[in-house]
Amino acid sequence: MPTPDADLRARIVSGAIEAYRATDFHRVGPDEVAEHAGVPVAEVGRAFPMWELLVVAVIDRWNNGSRLALWPVAERDGAVAYLRARLEAGITDPALVRLRIAVLSAASNPGHPAAGWFRTQYTRAFEDLTLALVREPRGASPRHAAEQLMALFEGLQLQAMVRDDAEPLSGFDRAVARMRVGWAAARVDA
Description:
By secondary structure, this protein is mainly alpha-helical.
């Protein structure tokens, strides 16, 4: 049975996810989290004495939960289908995409208290994609194909956030079709 503190932390993380869904990443603070969690602001600070710890807990549950929930798609249908499913999930839950993009900025700052954890999570996602590509036919190395696919995935998510006319799924499908032609040519040339 979870401890009262574990229950409180879980409730606060759920409240933070709802707060991030309701407003921009940079506008969410302890007051918004407390309101969505239904707890006093002091409880947020007690459960998460550093704000970065709460953001880590949110990313761990929300992003990693989504990533792991969709992993069977990679096992069944391959890496491309998996990334497409993640892109589709981001369309239905754009707040998660906004949070991920904001956290990527923090991951690039070595002075950020959670940068190491954020970078490790990103590296793990890249390695998962590389591993999934090992089982797919292509001419490019799995690592190079993963670089291309990850860049496409991240870029289309960013475009969907800032362009009203962005169509990330059709853009993904078109780009992947062209990548597969290039990968097949690399296999023939090898």
